[in-house]
C-alpha cells in the first residue's frame, strides 16, 4: 500500500549521485491480433503514406521512436517517482490510462490508423473488463517498484516474463511445451537469481512487487488468449487499448482516492508554485501512449518476431542508459546475471519457434 503524503521537490539534487530505484515501463502488454485493412486507400494512415519517404527510412524512424518511447517512459517514471518526489504511482498510472484512452480515440477515429471496432455483447465487455483488472495490477505494481529498485535490476526481472507465461499456461490451460523450451527457461531463472544475490540496491519489497508486475503481465497474455478466442470477439490491439484504457482508469480511481486521497489537492498546490509538474505528468502520459503506438507500428512495418527481438535488446539498452544517467551501482556478477537471463530469453524464443514448426508438420 502506498501511503498518501506530501512530497518534497528534489529536482535540485544531482541524480548522478543518488541511488536509483526504478520500474518497468507502463506498457500495456497487448499481443497483436490479425491485421485489419487501414481506413486509407493505400492501406496506410495518412501520416505514414507520404511517397517521399522510403520504406527503409520510415522503418528505421519507427524503430528509433520505439526505442525512444520505451526508454523515455522508464526515465520519466524514474525521475517523477524518485528524484522529483511525486510519490503517487497509482495516480500516475491512472493518468497514463486516461492519456491512452484519449490518444487511442484520436488515432482510430481521426487518423484512421485502424478501423474502429465495437464491443458487441455484455459478455465481451466483461471479458475486456477482466483483462483491464489484471493489467491494473501489473502496472501499479511495476510503477510502485520504481521507488525501490534500479532500472537495470527491474529490466532483469521483467525479462523473466516467458517463465511466468509458461507457468500460467500450464496451470490454467494444462498446455505443455517441449523439453527444449523448458530447458531454455533455466538460464532465465538462474540469471535473475544471480543478479538478485549480487544487486547492491536490492530491496525485498521492491523485488517482490516487480515480480508481481511481471507475473501479472504474463497472466494477462494467457487469459487474453483464452477469453478472446471467438473471431467475433477478437479486437485489434489498438481497439483493445481503446476500450481497456478507460476501464483501467475507472478501476484505479477508487484506489487512488482511498490510498492516495490527497494527491489532487497536493498536485494543485504544487502546480501553483512549480508548473513543471504539469508538463512532466503530461509528457509522461504522452510517452506512455507512444510506447503502445510504436509497438503496433513496429509490428505493422516489420513483424512480431522483430518486435520480440527488439524487446530483448531494449532491456539491455535501458539498463545501460539508466546506469549512465542515474549512476546506480552495479556489480560484475549483477551484469553477468542480467546477461544470462537475456541469453535464456533468446534461447526460449528460438526453442518456441522450432517447437511451433515441428507441430505444424
From TrEMBL:
Q: Enumerate the GO terms in the molecular function aspect.
A: antiporter activity
Bilayer-crossing regions: 57-76, 88-113, 125-146, 152-172, 179-196, 240-257, 277-298, 332-351
The answer to whether UniProt assigns keyword Oxidoreductase to this entry is no
Q: Quote any Pfam family the record assigns.
A: TPT
- GO-annotated cellular components: Golgi apparatus; membrane
Residues covered by the Sugar phosphate transporter domain: 60-349
Q: What is this protein called?
A: BnaA08g24710D protein
Q: Which organism is it from?
A: Brassica napus (Rape)
The record lists the lineage as: Eukaryota, Viridiplantae, Streptophyta, Embryophyta, Tracheophyta
Amino acid at each position: 500500500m502506498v501511503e498518501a503524503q506530501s512530497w518534497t521537490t528534489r529536482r535540485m539534487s544531482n541524480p548522478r549521485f543518488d541511488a536509483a530505484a526504478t520500474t518497468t515501463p507502463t506498457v500495456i502488454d497487448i499481443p497483436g491480433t490479425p491485421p485489419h485493412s487501414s481506413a486509407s486507400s493505400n492501406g496506410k494512415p495518412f501520416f505514414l503514406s507520404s511517397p517521399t519517404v522510403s520504406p527503409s527510412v520510415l522503418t528505421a524512424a519507427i524503430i528509433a521512436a520505439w526505442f525512444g518511447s520505451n526508454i523515455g517512459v522508464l526515465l520519466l517514471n524514474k525521475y517523477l517517482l524518485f528524484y522529483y518526489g511525486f510519490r503517487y504511482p497509482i495516480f500516475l498510472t491512472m493518468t497514463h490510462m486516461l492519456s491512452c484512452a484519449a490518444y487511442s480515440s484520436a488515432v482510430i477515429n481521426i487518423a484512421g490508423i485502424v478501423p474502429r471496432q465495437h464491443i458487441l455483447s455484455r459478455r465481451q465487455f466483461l471479458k475486456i473488463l477482466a483483462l483491464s483488472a489484471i493489467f491494473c495490477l501489473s502496472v501499479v505494481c511495476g510503477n510502485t517498484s520504481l521507488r525501490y529498485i534500479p532500472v537495470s535490476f527491474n529490466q532483469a526481472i521483467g525479462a523473466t516474463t516467458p517463465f511466468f507465461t509458461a507457468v500460467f499456461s500450464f496451470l490454467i490451460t494444462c498446455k505443455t511445451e517441449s523439453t527444449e523450451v523448458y530447458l531454455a527457461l533455466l538460464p532465465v531463472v538462474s540469471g535473475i537469481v544471480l543478479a538478485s544475490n549480487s544487486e547492491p540496491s536490492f530491496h525485498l519489497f521492491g523485488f517482490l512487487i516487480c515480480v508481481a508486475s511481471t507475473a501479472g503481465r504474463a497472466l494477462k497474455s494467457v487469459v487474453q488468449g483464452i477469453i478472446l478466442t471467438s473471431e467475433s470477439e477478437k479486437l485489434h490491439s489498438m481497439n483493445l487499448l481503446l476500450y481497456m484504457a478507460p476501464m483501467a482508469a475507472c478501476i484505479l480511481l477508487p484506489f487512488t482516492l482511498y490510498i492516495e486521497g490527497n494527491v489532487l489537492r497536493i498536485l494543485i498546490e504544487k502546480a501553483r508554485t512549480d508548473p513543471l509538474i504539469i508538463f512532466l505528468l503530461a509528457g509522461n502520459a504522452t510517452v506512455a501512449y507512444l510506447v503502445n503506438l510504436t509497438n503496433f507500428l513496429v509490428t505493422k512495418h516489420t513483424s512480431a518476431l522483430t518486435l520480440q527481438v527488439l524487446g530483448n535488446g531494449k532491456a539491455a539498452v535501458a539498463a545501460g542508459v539508466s546506469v549512465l544517467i542515474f549512476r546506480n551501482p552495479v556489480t560484475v556478477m549483477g551484469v553477468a546475471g542480467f546477461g544470462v537471463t537475456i541469453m535464456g530469453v533468446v534461447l526460449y524464443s528460438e526453442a518456441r519457434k522450432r517447437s511451433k514448426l515441428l507441430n505444424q508438420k
